[in-house]
């Protein structure tokens, strides 16, 4: 999938989680619903850190480009070191390490740990990174013609304002995890969800996605999971743009309404 579809699917997934949480009696305060949807929209771009031409590679200028170079090389090295006898030769690391459930869990866990140990500045950093990515994904047309600095300022300002809202009593800092010292522990959840939704989206495309690594399937450790080939589509095709993206918008709207007990 392309960046905008990944971000839309991520936001829709979190809003669906909000609906399920409301039905289970753990209703999200509206700031958690909004911030979580934005973080998931941004996190749904993050697995493409292994792709030098992806949206995320442009999001933070030379810094993100350099990170993508490093992650691509790391992913390729891990692939070569762990591939099974049935796995093909590759020349790069795209759709390997960062496109697995293990990467999703590790990045989400790292974010949660940083949030509860690093204090306000760590929370602001997590929000800033993912809000910039959300702008790049959800508002991609505007982001492409805007200055990077304007996008960064929007991300930083939004992070500061939303963190201030979440810090208020009952507004979400302690949502789901209520013990002292567990404020913002939930921030890792939308990051895990965003990465997994990205992997599921890529699994629907022609190349599939090795989401189960390192669990071997047959002679392959990097088995590209996906539906039957006749159900797959090429990234950026009309199926993605004309069918899936509108569907994500509708599902997100329904999820938000259910999460806020509007329906």
Strand content: under 5%
Helix/strand/pairing category:
mainly alpha
Largest sheet: none
How does the overall form come out from the CA principal axes? globular
Average of pLDDT: 91
Count the DSSP helices.
10
Low-confidence stretches: none
What's the alpha carbon Rg, rounded to whole Å?
18 Å
DSSP strand tally: 0
Q: Compute the separation of the termini in Å.
A: 31 Å
N to C succession of SSEs:
HHHHHHHHHH
Helical content class: 55-70%
Compact description:
The chain is mainly alpha-helical. The chain has helices spanning 3-23, 30-43, 55-59, 62-82, 101-117, 119-138, 140-145, 148-167, 188-203, 238-259.
List its salient traits.
263 residues; mainly alpha; 0% strand
Describe the structure.
This protein is mostly helical and 263 residues long. The protein has helices at residues 3-23, 30-43, 55-59, 62-82, 101-117, 119-138, 140-145, 148-167, 188-203, 238-259. Helix 1 (3-23) runs parallel beside helix 10 (238-259). The longest helix has 22 residues, at 238-259. It is globular and about 55 Å long. The two termini are 31 Å apart.
